[in-house]
Amino acid sequence: MRIGIVAPSCRIDEDVVQRVAALAEGRAELAWHPQCLLSDGHFAGPDAVRAEALIAYANDPAIDAIWFARGGYGACRIVAQVIDALRPIAREKTYLGYSDPGTLLGALYARGIGRVAHGPMPADVRRAGGEAAVSRALDWLVDGSTTALEPSLGEVPAAAFNIVILAHLIGTRHLPDLSGHVLMIEEVAEYLYRTDRDLAQIIQHPSIRGVAGIRMGRISQVPGNDPDFGAEPEAVVRHWCARAGIPFLGAADIGHDAGNKIVPFGPSSSGA
Amino acid sequence: MRIGIVAPSCRIDEDVVQRVAALAEGRAELAWHPQCLLSDGHFAGPDAVRAEALIAYANDPAIDAIWFARGGYGACRIVAQVIDALRPIAREKTYLGYSDPGTLLGALYARGIGRVAHGPMPADVRRAGGEAAVSRALDWLVDGSTTALEPSLGEVPAAAFNIVILAHLIGTRHLPDLSGHVLMIEEVAEYLYRTDRDLAQIIQHPSIRGVAGIRMGRISQVPGNDPDFGAEPEAVVRHWCARAGIPFLGAADIGHDAGNKIVPFGPSSSGA
């Protein structure tokens, strides 16, 4: 299996390449696009270069899966160019990532392009215990391992997003129709008042109001609010679910951490 | 003139009441709703109490204008309840504020309720030179002073928003149709990558794509980006204007500071 790695947001360092290559040795061929190591201010190269790298790999028949290297910020600057340039061969591939590249996952899923999944990325190897996250991603990409999957997945179609990324898809043409889906959400390092504000925007949208329910992944590294926000993260999620009449379904085993499980979008508990 | 003051977001302290009352002495009667001083976690009282305070004043025939006391966060939690409870008398009033209460300004303007304006609030009295900002608001509210107005205002209708607040109106029923308007935007204390992300969402929306142009207010207190973002605030605004084919019209004299001028929404360079 040939896995193409591109960085639509921020760059990675050479050590990520080395450590992930070691984990993939003998399991899959990793094609690291040199764009992953570029630097242009905040981004892993200029918009056009990041877009062209992703387009080239997505349209390359010799690549079986696209693995987003890292999050950060930048996918929303290239999503329109990328989506409009994909050829039919791009529909045959798997796309894996989370956090900022969730913008691309949403846009791909909105058009039924490829098998889209929320899960660990190469840069996660730097986390404490991060090798397990990367190995889990390979287990799913290479072997279709079901043990890599978020455990609540079942018959109902699912999708997963970082909360602030989903909020920024609202009102754009890249938001997929999530009606009937179990929507899993997670967040990291955001003030709770911001997550509350994001959820206010998210749950007002008709497509979101039609979800089968919401599961809460980890909302981690929340900075202290001054004054105290007055509610815990779960109470915030439950508040907005209740206001929108959306069932709160409990926890999802996803988040910005090494435990992050894989959520294929759609009715797909069957692995890659 | 009787000006009703409510706090849809965060609370104010007693010193704001005293200092603003002194500035208004002999000019206007200020009706401070006691809700302004309440505290409930992050907010100036629970959602229902904040909503009821605003509804009561907006529906009170003895109140001529509603002045939002302060920003922070919280208006989006009450906007639906407020809008749906306003009676015809609420349409006769002026509404003044900015920052987080911009959510309410947008929702009011979307329904043609009242004379809506972006400008200083009582809590601005605490800023360096803040008495000038509060006096400017009174000049406009009480005397309809045109010197209080943002100087570029003219024949073309205008509107003004904090960027992150406008981004969170996208895709909701509270976003007004801004086609044909000069849209003025300002921001404070946000990482530039976040402002970039907000603008990406904002300029994709059809209503925003139809604006007559965008003017950039102050984008101030931007925290340092690591790595350097690679562009200055004006380049970021120009980038998104160019991508959307929206004319960039230059600077607007608004911002989270004592110099913040007043921008009545709509075709209204005629003051209050």
Automatic annotation (TrEMBL), chains A, B:
Q: Where is the LD-carboxypeptidase N-terminal domain?
A: 3-118
Any one of the GO BP annotations: proteolysis
Q: Gene3D superfamilies from the entry?
A: Class I glutamine amidotransferase-like (3.40.50.10740), LD-carboxypeptidase A C-terminal domain-like (3.50.30.60)
Check the UniProt entry and state the signal peptide residues, or none: none
Q: Which UniProt keywords apply?
A: Carboxypeptidase, Hydrolase, Protease, Serine protease
Q: Which Pfam families match?
A: Peptidase_S66 (PF02016), Peptidase_S66C (PF17676)
Q: Which family does it belong to?
A: Belongs to the peptidase S66 family.
- Which named protein is this? LD-carboxypeptidase
Q: Which organism is the protein's source?
A: Sphingomonas horti
